[in-house]
Amino acid sequence: MNWLDRVIGFFSPQSAYMREAWRQQLEFIRGAGYDAADSGRLNRNWRPHNEAADYVDRGARDVIRARARDMERNSDMFNSILSAYKRNVVGTGFTLQASTGDEELDTQIEKLWKRWTKKQNCDVTKQQNFNQILRMAVTRKKIDGGILFKKCYTKGGILPFKLQALEVDELAGSVASPHTKGNRVIGGIEYNDSNCPVGYWIEQYNIDGYGLNQPVYYPANDIIFYYTKKRPSQLREVSDMAPSLTRIRDANEFITAVSMKERVAACFALLIKRAAPLGGVTGRNAQNNNGDRRSYDGKMLTPGMISELNAGDDAEVVDPKSGSSDATTFLKLLQRLVCAGQGLSYEATARDMSETNYSSARQAMIEDDLTYAEEIEQLRDSFMDEVYETFLISAVLAGEIVISDFWIDPQKYMDHKWVSAPKRWIDPQKEAGANKTALESGVKSFKQISAEQGRDWKEQIDDMADVAAYAKEKGVQIGGVKDVQIAEEKPKPKNPDE
């Protein structure tokens, strides 16, 4: 009851009773048909509110990020999820396949890209190659919610283009005045009237990390903001691990408690119950073997020990019982819930295959791959594609690649593909048999199967032909290449009668 109801109840309890009865009836009507909307006893303390995403996120964003970073430093369960994402989203990296329509030009672009992705060419700090930058991007997105990359047009590499990684903390939340009139600044990002980012205000930290200089404005074309947007009204990042943080913390606290319990359980002890106190009138302990009572100070249990106690003394064993078996079951439950919250299987993070067979492991891997595929899609579309397009433009401007009609239609030369490294097989024989059946039935092409194995299908055919030719030259018959005939070219007859 609110204060008004209490005042009415003081003067007229009947009126107050009727007001409360009608209020409960109205709440029931509002939630009629949905148990989740019921305001009864079981849901009485469940009172969320509908607010814009940024209004909800801005007050919790920094706290969640700080707690996620603490988990990164101190939680093995937390890091098992991060490792699973790094292994499966990025792995050993991606291979570029340019698709300009000119094979010679494609080869030239791919060779230049391979050189540019080295740390001294792609990273303004010269500390990370492109694959390591990708792994860091996936990791920071899971922990911090996102990461920013600034396009730096500078000298020092094979191209005047490098990347500078920035943490989301460097967004200048204190800036209120927009760079362009009519825009607005929220959380360090400047938006136009359509809520489209047009610029970013970046804090300028000193090298020691303490002092601050005046924030600098960068146009949106120079910044890549890699994060997941889940609601139309969401403006900035929130840690991907937010739904799982409390569960991981519960698991960590539980593990600490169980570890302490097991340490106590490992403390085997022996207590001596005396029939009479040691010593005589002088209070000194007897230390001889002439029938006097003796002390057990300094004595310990040793293997094969044979000894005897003083007359009347008794020994009582202290052996605490362990409860690790029950703890294992509960800990598995917690970890399964954490993994489910991140769209992964328990086996993918715990690396525990004791309860799986080939079919269940294959199904779990398929479902996990669908989760990773979403992250790979966003990584490619939101970051890698834009980096490649800027790389190609910089290569043309720098004269490293010559394309006469590039500026007439740049998009004509932007087509490309990313080929990821192949995944290891659970059962190579079954996987190879499935690929053979799919190829023979036309369900998959050789090009698709090669892509799944992380290979370029043309290069693979060239390799097969080279191996077959070399084997024939040496007089060796090998398996794995069928219907490949390497024969000397003979002049074609002029007519069928020749």
Automatic annotation (TrEMBL):
- The protein depicted here goes by the name Phage portal protein, lambda family
Q: Which organism is it from?
A: Faecalibacterium prausnitzii M21/2
- InterPro entries linked to this entry: Phage_lambda_portal
Q: What molecular functions are annotated in GO for this chain?
A: structural molecule activity
Tell me the Pfam families matching this sequence.
Phage_portal_2
Gene Ontology biological-process annotations: virion assembly
